[in-house]
Amino acid sequence: MRVINLILVLCLGIMAFGQVAVAGSKTAVIVVDVQADFTTAHKGSLAVEGSDEAYLKDVVKATGELKAAGLPIYATQDWHPADHMSFANNNKGSKPYQLITLKDGRKQVMWPDHCVQNTDGAKILLDEAVFTKIVQKGTDSNFDSYSGFKDDGGAETAMNKTLKEAGIETLVVYGIATDYCVKATVMDGLAAGYKIVVVQDLCRGVAPDTSKAAWAEMEKAGAVLWPSLDLKKAKEL
User: Fold this and answer.
1) Is the distance from CB of 173 to CB of 210 less than 8 angstroms?
2) I want to staple 149 with a disulfide (CB 3.0 to 4.6 A). Which of 144, 188, 202, 234 is the partner?
3) pTM, 2 dp
């Protein structure tokens, strides 16, 4: 009986150690806006070039590998109300992709309606069970929100608080779009004190020139750019 009890104690101790090791991980992943409306694979209203089925398979595979390695996975999700101020349809006389001046003086790019709450276009294209938490953004009709950390009016999302409570210090970031939501999330994450790695081939950008500028801006601010996912290095971060 004593031997059995000893074995049970040892097993429980090993299990507890494993749980602490995973729970105490200081590195997490943020998958940015991999949603139907941003992909060519789903004929999205704001589809980004290169976001086809092959790209989605790569994202799903990489995310699964990072999850299996014990890293917590977070997602950002554009989640706009139908009356969102960034939609051209809600600004009389404007056209998609036009830069306009709002009544309060702010400059704003007009976008096609996209990622409207509770529509198929807003769906994240990975199994939601893989995520520790999905952080929604762009929920205020009056402000756009490229960053996963805060909107253009400065209101914070749940991202920073969630990561801090989990003891996260380093982030592996990838998703859509390089020159908008990925860049804004990375820049705000750096400003909040996180070390950040961005996986380039798991990102897709709106335009080559602005994406090139975004890579340079992120790197200059302190982000580390990986051309592709290095799972071994990710485990060691």
Assistant:
1) no
2) 188
3) 0.88
By CB atoms closer than 10 A (0-12, 13-18, 19+), residue 147 is: buried
The answer to whether the CB of 24 falls within 8 A of the CB of 16 is no
4 has pLDDT over 60: no
**Sign (positive or negative) of CA dihedral 123, 127, 129, 133:** negative
Respond yes or no: is residue 188 known to be catalytic.
no
Residue appearing with tokens 């801090």: 164
* Token pair recorded at residue 101: 């001046």
33 is catalytic: yes
89-123 burial: b if 16+ Cβ within 10 Å, else e: eebeebeeeeeeeeeeeeebebbbbbbbeeeebbb
What is the rounded CA–CA span in Å between residue 31 and residue 74? Answer: 6
Catalytic residue among 181, 183, 188, 203: 181
Q: Are 124 and 67 in contact (CB under 8 A)?
A: no
| pLDDT tens digits for range 25-76 | 699 999 999 999 999 999 999 999 999 999 999 999 999 999 999 999 999 9
